[in-house]
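In this section we walk through a basic example: taking a raw amino acid sequence and producing a predicted 3D structure, encoded as discrete structure tokens. The instruction is simple. Fold the sequence below.
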Amino acid sequence: MMIIYEGPSVLDGAPIVCIATIASGNEKTGDMVQTWAMRADVDPITASRMGADASVCGDCPLRGTARPEATDGQAAKRGCYVTLVQAPLKIWRAYKAGRYQHARTVDAIVNIGRNRMVRIGTYGDGAAVPGWVTAALQSEARGHTAYSHQWRNDRSSYDVRRYMASVQSEAEAREAWALGHRTYRIVRDEGEAVPGFEVACPSSHGVQCADCGLCSGTQTRAKSIVIAPHGSGRAAAAALLG
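The resulting token sequence is shown next.
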């Protein structure tokens, strides 16, 4: 694992860290370089509960509702698929213990992704990190995936060429398409895909992201993607769909 960025969030200026894990056993994605953007000064569970995760997640509606009056646990009704108490907390603790080296140059970051499949935003929104960092990681990769809710946020480092615009409804998807984005949308049922514009995520048929690579912004000329709620927050994510 390598620290590829440590500094202010481009979203709100708070201290964040972005860590790249070089190998992954994730059954859905397959073996990809994975990136984790987190608050540098507070663990991801506390950040969720306090609302401080906005520094790395922006205005993503799947963050849930902050409850700073509580003394433990995460945000209420959190719909994100990432289980904070597992990999994010483990990685953050190892970071605070000084167990990771820094990739201190652009060339060092490029080398991490070279000839690999790269997943930008395994946890945290890649657009919270300066664009040169994620661009370097992806620049000589075999392929990449990236998603972001920051497609309307001028303060972010969102790049339409590299990111899927994460949207919550067909109306949002159509707005994004009109602006030239490809989209990634959670739906109750994959049959809700808009004919001619969207297709179901191939992971529904056992295809791993490492072998697919469709979720790579407008660098890939393909339809947008829909997927049913999944992961630990799937019930809360489904509730957001109405």
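Looking at the output, two observations stand out. Helices lie at 44-50, 54-57, 87-96, 106-113, 131-139, 170-178, 209-212, 234-240. The radius of gyration is 17 Å. In the next section we compare this with other chains.
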